[in-house]
């Protein structure tokens, strides 16, 4: 019987015998527990206090074991003992040494990775809370981590790359690399044929475009571009509505922009809402386009989640959305950091309703082919294959430049 351990950087806390865990993380762990042919556990570093998108859980009611470690505690053979296959986050540097540990113990180690160095640098430079000395130190740390990550990934049993940029960057380091899409959209949340028909019928009437944007309202997410885009559309005479969901440091600035430019009848700040019961139903029935101002190339789950609701996506051509748009046919791209170009793409969508409807259909169909269930099943099959005794080459004799399996 194979035992699976998940080592994740996700936030975790405890209080009065209860665990405070990220809800999305728990959903994923439940799926591992349902599909994995053996016991499943996870190692998390404990933080203090609660955090957004979390809730309390009774450990006895979870189908997987949770072990909380003091923050900053290094992991070694003792912490991972008793498990056959280990899935470990590879974006940070704290656990890269486990590749050598697992090589010695014979345990199968698979790293999961989502960010490339370009994205890490973008995050540093777009973070307004960092002073220039702190930015310089962070950039130096990114540079120093490149060699360690390459060595660890070469020695690991496999890699699971989240999205196109990560796959392109890291698959040459390990022949057992697979690409997956991160999404919370289970098959029951996908837009129905009736939802799609209603949207297409409305678009055919020439009704105003219904745009939506969701997530953290932060400079890192490009939220500062929302009001300039709305102003540009207004100046072009494009009939539209824009619903914004979420909260963050730019919320007050966006609210002030709405008031200052007379956008109250077109742009609405809705605050944070529940993903499953409010956000997804709204996207399925009351929106046409997801407006993405994301400048970084990280594999935001937002793309697949909104595509699953049948929304076309208009976004900046970061490495992730540029590649995803090409393979899915689900929308439009615009040059990075040019809100006027995003507005022009939206104006084109408003004019070419037939293409917009086709993009909505392509978005839903692509997301359905990569639903939460399908992607997790693929990832579990990959983990099982990597952990199979005698599979392919040993961890210690893999080299760069070989075909990706």
From TrEMBL:
GO terms for molecular function: transferase activity. The keyword Magnesium does not apply. Transmembrane segments: none annotated. Keywords: Transferase. This is Group 1 glycosyl transferase.
């Amino acid at each position: 019987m194979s035992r699976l351990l998940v080592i994740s950087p996700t936030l975790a806390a405890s209080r009065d015998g209860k665990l405070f865990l990220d809800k999305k993380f728990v959903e994923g762990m439940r799926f591992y527990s349902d599909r994995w042919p053996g016991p499943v556990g996870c190692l998390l570093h404990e933080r203090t206090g609660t955090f957004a998108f979390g809730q309390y859980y009774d450990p006895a009611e979870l189908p997987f074991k949770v072990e909380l470690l003091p923050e900053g505690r290094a992991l070694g053979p003792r912490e991972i003992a008793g498990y056959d296959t280990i899935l470990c986050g590879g974006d940070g540097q704290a656990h890269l040494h486990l590749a050598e540990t697992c090589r010695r113990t014979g345990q199968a180690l698979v790293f999961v990775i989502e960010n490339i160095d370009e994205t890490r640098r973008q995050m540093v430079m777009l973070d307004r809370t960092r002073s220039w000395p702190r930015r310089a130190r962070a950039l130096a740390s990114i540079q120093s981590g490149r060699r360690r990550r390459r060595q660890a990934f070469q020695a690991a049993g496999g890699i699971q790359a989240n999205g196109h940029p990560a796959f392109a960057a890291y698959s040459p380091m390990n022949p057992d690399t697979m690409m997956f899409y991160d999404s919370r959209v289970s098959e029951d949340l996908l837009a129905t044929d009736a939802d799609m028909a209603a949207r297409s019928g409305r678009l055919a009437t020439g009704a105003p475009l219904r745009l939506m944007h969701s997530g953290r309202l932060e400079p890192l997410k490009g939220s500062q571009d929302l009001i300039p885009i709305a102003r540009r559309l207004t100046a072009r005479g494009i009939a539209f509505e824009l619903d914004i969901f979420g909260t963050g440091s730019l919320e007050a600035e966006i609210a002030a922009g709405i008031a200052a430019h007379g956008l109250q009848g077109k742009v609405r700040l809705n605050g944070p809402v529940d993903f499953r019961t409010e956000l997804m139903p709204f996207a399925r029935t009351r929106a046409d386009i997801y407006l993405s101002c994301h400048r970084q190339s990280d594999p935001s789950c937002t793309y697949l989640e909104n595509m699953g609701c049948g929304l076309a996506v208009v976004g900046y051509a970061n490495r992730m959305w540029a590649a995803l748009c090409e393979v899915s046919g689900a929308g439009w791209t615009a040059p990075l950091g040019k809100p006027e170009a995003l507005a022009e793409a939206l104006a084109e969508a408003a004019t070419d309703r037939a293409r917009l409807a086709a993009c909505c259909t392509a978005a839903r169909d692509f997301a359905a082919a990569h639903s939460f269930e399908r992607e997790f099943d693929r990832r579990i099959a990959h983990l099982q294959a990597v952990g199979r005794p005698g599979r392919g080459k040993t961890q210690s004799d893999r080299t760069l430049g070989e075909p990706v399996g």
